[in-house]
Design goal:
By secondary structure, the protein is α/β, with parallel strands linked by helices. It folds into 2 domains: 139 residues; 150 residues, no CATH class. Helix content is 31%, strand content 27%. The protein is built from 9 helices and 14 strands. Helix 3 packs across helix 8. The radius of gyration is 22 Å and the shape is elongated.
Amino acid sequence: MAAAACLLLPARDRFEAIELDAALARMLGRGDRSETGGDDRRAQLRRFVRMTPVHWSLAALARQQERGDAGNAAWLRVDPVHVRPDINGARLLGWGDGLQVSDEESRAFVAALKPMFGDAGFALEATSPDRWYLRLEPGTPLPEFRDPAEALGTDLGDDIDITPQHRRWRVLESEVQVVLHNHPANQQRARRGLPPVNAVWCWGGGAMPQSVERIDGWTLASRDPSVRILARASGGGDELPSAWTLPERDTAFDLHRIITPEAIVRDWLVPAAEALRQGKLRLLVLDFVGGLRWRLERQHRWRFLHRSVQTLR
């Protein structure tokens, strides 16, 4: 039997300026369109992977995958990042391997920050130059932090939260920024033309879930490091190919790190729709952040009374 494919897409407003060719417009017009409203990135992913309990504890999953010692502790990722101030606030512009933090730099930064986190009651450890963890007591209350892959390039002023739990972490993050701003390793990075490591990004907090399982057998294919943590934990993760590739099993292709909407339409949507038309797929789903979904099946081509659509809206 042919496989099914789902394209996990950013919000529909990114596609407003793109006009669709006639064949694709007809296919979308004949598909089943639904809208739930308000669905965010995590709601998309939770349609394919179920975590019990529901809390978004990716730090514990990542720690278990790397070291196998997550145990009963609570964990929080506090990864080194580069944040650039701008006229409206600040933007996250560097995270992960793209920041090019060396082993030596990571050891120096962690050594400087350990006493500060220790005074707050947290043990700071690095499993790699760009993956840092806090080991916390079980049951430590943690707010919901935004994943760094979602925040890259965005205005961080939108993330400000005034709850008491967030306020505590904002104070710690500010103290970290002071320590890193004055660190000599950042002066050396500047001489090499590299951006400073001037902050940490807290995310993924919580304890190991009881279970992580795929829903209805779907496999996630993604370039997003945080999504790949979730996919590996569910036993169904693939690397995202550079362009549409016919899947061998039911696969949700996470396209959030594709730079332009034009590339998404050209390299993914058009060839996926053609594969459906030829009977090489049994089902194609378009799943947008915000809750818009299109379900396309080959037999929908007989729906002659449906109208074409001009854009992905």
